[in-house]
Amino acid sequence: MTRKTIKPVQIGELAKQLGITTRTIRYYEEIGLMGKSDRLGGSTRMYDKDDILRLKFILKMKAMGVSLKEIQELSEIFDINDQDFSTITPKLIEILDQHIARVDEKMAKLSSLRNDIVNYRVRIMDLLKNGHAI
């Protein structure tokens, strides 16, 4: 079985594939989330399989509500340790656990708000049934 090789792509093509802007990719590079990209002839940015996987990871983390600061921490650990994924796993688990706790808290607050709204609606309906003005 042969493994599909991903050929390097330019920034515009990568942005198009991932549904983001080239500015977003450049910004991630500027703040240190992306490793160094290869350039053809000193000007054209090229992204290889590892760059693409890293960018997909960043986008997934952002979609889950992980802050850029937290992603930067993961990127620094990753780069300092020669891009060994196992070195970021403990920090990643810690960050995800914190986000799970925040989501649980938000869900509890929303559930409470929903109950308050339902109860208020019931009270209003009772008042209307009994001929009282609101």
From TrEMBL:
Keywords carried by this UniProt record: Coiled coil, DNA-binding
Taxonomic lineage from the root: Bacteria, Pseudomonadati, Thermodesulfobacteriota, Desulfobulbia, Desulfobulbales
Coiled-coil residue spans: 96-130
Gene3D superfamilies listed in its UniProt record: 1.10.1660.10
Location of the HTH merR-type domain: 10-77
SMART domains: HTH_MERR (SM00422)
Name of the protein this chain belongs to: MerR family transcriptional regulator
Entry annotated with the keyword Cytoplasm: no
Organism: Desulfofustis limnaeus
Listed Pfam families: MerR_1
Claim: Coiled coil is one of the keywords in the record: yes
SUPFAM superfamilies: Putative DNA-binding domain
